[in-house]
Amino acid sequence: MISMKPARFAASLLIVAVILAAYRRFVGANNTTVALTLLLAILWISARWGLAEATAASLAAVLGFNFFFLPPVGRFTIQDPQNWVAFAAFLATAITASQLSARVRRRAADAESRRLEIERLYALVQAMILSGNPRKTIRELINRVVQVFGCSAAAFYYLPGEETFRTGPESNLVSDHELRAVAELEDLSMDPARQTAVAPVRLGMRPLGSVALAGRLPSEQTIRAIVNLAALTIEKARAFDDASHAEAARQSEVLKSALLDSLAHDIKTPLTSIKAAVTALLGANAAPDRELLTIIDEEADRLNRIAAEVVEMARIEAGKLHLEKHLVAVSELIASGLAELRGALKGRPVELRVPEGIPPAEADAELIGQALKQILENALKYSPEGSPLTLSAFAEGERIVIGVADRGPGIDESERTRVFDKFFRGRRHRFETEGTGMGLAIAKGIVEAHGERIWVESEPGQGAVFYFSLPVGKGGRA
Which one, out of 98, 192, 331, 458, has a CA that is 20 to 30 A from the CA of 158? Predict the structure, then answer.
């Protein structure tokens, strides 16, 4: 069977031959008319089939025009110099016209190709605009690329999750190792022999992974557009996913705060009654078993403290701490905190390092006293009985820093950033020490409500020092 290309060449030569024969035998016309007719035929061939066929037709037309119409007729020679000029002009015009026509045809084809690719990109964007989480987005992306652009296969390596997604039977043309390696590069690579293209997917300077296409490939510009679209849609999906989780976490925290608040008030009501009854019995000194009543009294106090901590934690998380700031002497704050824990100290030595002349702080004395009490209780729980505590205070620029040091086992480095989280208990003391795990979280919430910070410094086996800062009162001097 004759292929399309030779058939078009044969048809081009046949058109030239028909025009030459028609003017030679049937139509009497001058040479200019013959030349213009041949030029029109060449332009048509170029527009219809391409440059190669038009060039072959130009050469055939020049040779036929010379042989049949330029004297001496019947020979491939030219006697008149003017005919040489006409012959050369015809040849140049025929070839130039065919080239220009072929170029216009190519540009029209390129424009059509770009139009189709833009339509496919638009279809891809429409498909991806409502995608879900990153993994679902990637699966949708590679399936849509194969469907829209006619590729035989596609693969995507997602760097954050270290996962590879594939679709199509030829997706294994690019290995997992190659996909991971390309994710660290900066530009795409195309392999016409293998009919594959691999490109890194980046959002700015941050790598997200890589994409591979196999089979019939779109243009390089379109592949770059696909890569950019992939980066944007994956990042959009990730951000939407994060926002959904954040909103769920926020709603959970709101619900938890409301639950804690309600629970704390429900606990406090019966505790108040128990405490009043036991106190009355103990005061009467007529109870049949004073030891049991003492235990009830102590446990009621403990439950009361737990309920108070729950209420305070709920207030902090709900943002309902209302500060009443005024100038307060640091020595008074420390003395007040120690006075509240006089019974718990049980004669434990306490060293005070508060220099004279330290300026007053601007704070809510009641709340800061509560924060200091929580830190002191924490020090008592996690240090050996009878070991000393050190309370210090010093001015640092426009801040007053208060510290509580113990001689306990210290805090592991991996746990130092978490000791202020509510309900957190250290791994070594989780089942040995009583408490709710809310004390330091309450202290942190109170200090941060003052616009200040709280932190811990510790070395395992050498105790821990908890510090928090307060603003120097206006008019105070170091």
Answer: 192
The answer to whether residue 126 sits within a structural domain is no
Q: CA–CA separation, 81 vs 160, rounded Å?
A: 78
pLDDT for position 284 = 65
- Residue where one domain finishes, among candidates 210, 244, 278: 244
At residue 28, the 3 state secondary structure works out as coil
Burial of 127 (0-12, 13-18, 19+ CB in 10 A): middle
Instruction: Give the domain extent around 345.
Output: 326-471
CATH code of residue 365 = 3.30.565.10
Per-residue pLDDT reduced to its tens digit, 296-330: 777 777 777 776 776 677 667 666 677 888 899 99
* pLDDT reading at 462 higher than 50: yes
Same domain membership, residue 237 and residue 255 = no
Q: Of 385, 331, 320, which is closest to residue 357 (Cα–Cα)?
A: 331
CATH number for the domain that contains residue 136: 3.30.450.40
Q: Full-prediction pTM beyond 0.70?
A: no
Cα angle 196, 220, 135; round to 5: 65
Give the bridge partners for 404, in sequence order.
391, 466
**417 shares its domain with 300:** no
pLDDT tens across 172-194, in order? Answer: 778 888 888 888 887 888 888 88
Beta partners for 351?
Answer: 390
The answer to whether position 257 is within a domain reads yes
Q: What is the DSSP string of 190-209?
A: EETTTTEEEEEEEETTEEEE
Name residue, tokens 């049937």: 26
- The confidence band for 478, taking pLDDT boundaries of 50, 70 and 90, is very low
Report yes or no on 431 lying in a domain.
yes
In terms of domains, do 183 and 212 share one?
Answer: yes
CB 367 within 8 A of CB 400: no
300 plus 410 within the same structural domain = no
- Which amino acid appears at position 100 of this protein? L
Tokens representing residue 49 in the block = 């089939």
The answer as to whether 296 is a domain residue is yes
Query: What are the φ/ψ torsions at residue 209 (nearest 5 degrees)?
Result: 150, -150
